[in-house]
Write a structure and sequence with these properties.
The protein is α/β, with parallel strands linked by helices and 348 residues long. The chain is built from eleven helices and twelve strands. Helix 7 links the parallel strand 8 and strand 9. The protein binds S-adenosyl-L-homocysteine (SAH).
C-alpha cells in the first residue's frame, strides 16, 4: 500500500514555494540550502523562525524510521534498515573508500523480479517507495558520512529501479540538482527491463547504466534472471548499445560469478562477444556470488574470478573484480532482505 502522508523529501522546490506562500521569498532559499546543502533537519535550520521550523516538523515529518544500523569493514561500511509508513522495510548501504563515498539506495521495498540467487528477489515485492523515501535514504546516509562528502549514488539496493522509474527519476533529479551530485556519479542498475532502458535513454541527464547480465545465452539467463523470458538477450543488448550511443555514457554489465554455472571459458567467450556489440565496449564488473539463504550454489573462488577476468581481457573486454563490502552484516550485493523472511528455494 502506498503511504497516505506526504513527508519532508517528497516536496520539490516548487511545492515548497507554495507551502511557504506568505513568507518572505528568501525563506525558500534558506530552507532549501538548509535541507540540501547543509543536509540539516528542519529543526536545526536556525536561520528560519522557530514557528516555521515547528510547523515543518509537524506537517512534514521524515519518512524513514531507523530500525537498525550495522557497521562492518572497520566502520567503512554502514547498513541502515528503515521502516516506511505501513511497515515495509528498506535498506541503504554507505560505503567509504579512500577516494570516494558511495551510497547504495533501494528503489523498492522488496522486488518482483524473482532472481533466485538474490535475497531481495527471494523475499518478494512489498511496495514502491515514494520520491521522498528514496531521497531521504541519500540524505540520512550523507548525514552519517559527515565530512566525507557522498560522491557516488548507485541504485543497487533492494528493488528494480526501472519498475519504479518515475519516482527513481524524480529522486535522481533531486540528488543531481539539489544535493549536487554529477550525473556521471549516479548509476542506475537494472535487471534488464528494455522499456525502462529506452525511457532512461530519453531522460536529460547522462547517468550511468548498469545491467545485471549474469548469463550470455538465453537458456542460462532464462533460468538465472526470469525476466529474460520477456526481454531476451538480443533485445537487451540492442537497448544497451542504443543507450551508449545516445548518452555516450559507459554501460557496464554486472556478472555475479556462480561456481560451475556461469564461470566457464565458454561463458567468457559468449560474454566478450556481447560486449563487442557495444561500441566502443561495455565494461564488465565481476563479483563472486554472495551467499543467500534461498540459493544452493556458492560463489566462484576468488582465484578463478581473477582468471575469468584475465580471460575476458585477453578476449578484448575490460573487466574489474569488485571488492565485496559488508558480507558479514548482509550488506553485500544480493543480500539485502530487510529482515523479511525468505522463501526457501526448492531447487537443488
Ligand atoms: N534490480 C536491479 C538493482 C539491484 S542491484 C538489478 O538487478 O540490477 C543488485 C546487484 O546485485 C544486481 O546486479 C544483482 O544481480 C546482484 N546480485 C543479486 N544477488 C546477488 C548475490 N547473491 N551475489 C552477488 N550479487 C548479487
Amino acid at each position: 500500500m502506498l503511504p497516505t502522508r506526504t513527508t519532508l523529501y517528497d516536496l520539490d522546490r516548487e511545492a515548497f514555494g507554495e507551502l511557504l506562500d506568505g513568507e518572505p521569498r528568501y525563506r525558500l532559499d534558506q530552507l532549501w540550502s538548509g535541507l540540501y546543502e547543509q543536509l540539516s533537519d528542519p529543526a536545526d535550520i536556525t536561520n528560519l523562525p522557530k514557528k516555521l521550523r515547528e510547523r515543518l516538523d509537524r506537517e512534514l515529518p521524515g519518512a524513514l524510521r531507523p530500525v537498525t544500523e550495522s557497521v562492518s569493514d572497520s566502520g567503512d561500511t554502514v547498513k541502515f534498515l528503515w521502516e516506511l509508513e505501513g511497515g515495509s522495510r528498506v535498506e541503504t548501504v554507505l560505503m567509504l573508500y579512500s577516494e570516494r563515498a558511495t551510497v547504495c539506495v533501494s528503489s523498492q521495498a522488496g522486488c518482483a523480479m524473482a532472481c533466485g540467487f538474490c535475497a531481495t528477489g527471494q523475499a518478494g515485492f512489498t511496495r514502491h517507495p515514494t520520491v521522498g523515501e528514496i531521497v531521504e535514504q541519500v540524505v540520512r546516509a550523507a548525514q552519517r558520512a559527515g565530512d566525507r562528502r557522498v560522491s557516488n549514488i548507485v541504485f543497487m539496493g533492494m528493488g528494480e529501479p526501472m519498475a519504479n522509474l518515475d519516482r527513481v527519476w524524480a529522486a535522481t533529479e533531486r540528488i543531481h540538482g539539489d544535493i549536487g551530485l554529477s550525473a556521471r556519479h549516479i548509476t542506475i542498475s537494472t535487471v534488464g527491463l528494455v522499456p525502462g532502458i529506452t525511457a532512461l535513454r530519453d531522460k536529460p541527464l547522462p547517468v550511468n547504466l548498469a545491467v545485471s547480465l549474469h548469463a550470455a545465452n538465453d537458456a542460462l539467463r532464462d533460468e538465472l534472471v526470469p525476466i529474460n523470458r520477456r526481454y531476451p538477450i538480443d533485445a537487451l543488448i540492442e537497448a544497451c548499445a542504443d543507450y551508449l550511443e545516445v548518452k555516450n555514457r559507459r554501460v557496464s554489465f554486472e556478472w555475479a560469478m556462480i561456481d560451475g554455472v556461469n564461470d566457464r571459458r565458454s561463458d567468457a567467450e559468449e560474454l566478450a562477444a556481447l560486449c563487442r556489440r557495444l561500441r566502443p565496449s561495455a565494461h564488465v564488473n565481476l563479483i563472486p556470488l554472495n551467499p543467500t539463504p534461498g540459493y544452493p550454489t556458492t560463489g566462484t573462488p576468488l582465484k578463478r574470478v581473477h582468471e575469468f577476468r584475465d580471460l575476458l581481457e585477453e578476449l578484448g573486454t575490460n573487466a574489474t573484480v569488485r571488492q565485496n563490502r559488508g558480507t558479514d552484516i548482509d550488506a553485500a550485493c544480493g543480500q539485502l532482505a530487510a529482515g523479511q523472511p525468505v522463501v526457501l528455494s526448492t531447487k537443488s
